[in-house]
Amino acid sequence: MTKRTILVPVDDTADSERAVDWALSNLYQKGDELYFLFVVSGTSFVVLGGDAAETIVEEDKSAEDKVFQDATAAVERRFAPKAAAASAAYKIEIARGLTDNESIGDTVCKRADSLNALAVVMVKHQRSAIKKWFMGSVTNTVAHQCKQPVVVLGH
Fold it and tell me: 115-140, pLDDT tens digit by residue?
């Protein structure tokens, strides 16, 4: 039997915990692997000086590393114990990139495709219709663009 991979895009929220719980209760079978994907901002900058015409900006590597470490710690604290309690194998990936909704959705879809994921399991975050219209939705992007099956949990 080949190993199946269940992709769960996560952030440090109770909604993501619900997605992990649902995946473990409803999709996971012995031998499967949970794959936690957390997308963080790719670059942090520090303004060193200048005026509006000549601003000197430098990448802040330490801030970028801290974001990466915080995301890893959040996954290890919130989700790894749930997988371990179910004796489920899991992997953690912290992906750096653009963090607008469409870019995160694209990252999730590409990763699901490359993993040949059994499914992507995510929770729809509660936002007003106006915010969704202006900003879009990661869940909406994934549901409409992902080649793999997508399970979207409501509230």
Answer: 999 999 998 876 555 555 444 588 88
Pull the structure tokens for residue 147. 């080649």
Contact between 120 and 147 under an 8 Å Cβ cutoff? The reply is: no
Query: Which distant-in-sequence residues (6+ apart) come within 8 Å of 55 by Cβ?
Result: 47, 49
Residues 6+ apart with CB under 8 A from 108: 7, 9, 37, 39, 120, 122, 138, 141, 142, 146
The band of 60, judged by pLDDT with boundaries at 50, 70 and 90, is: low
Give CATH for domain 5-153.
3.40.50.620
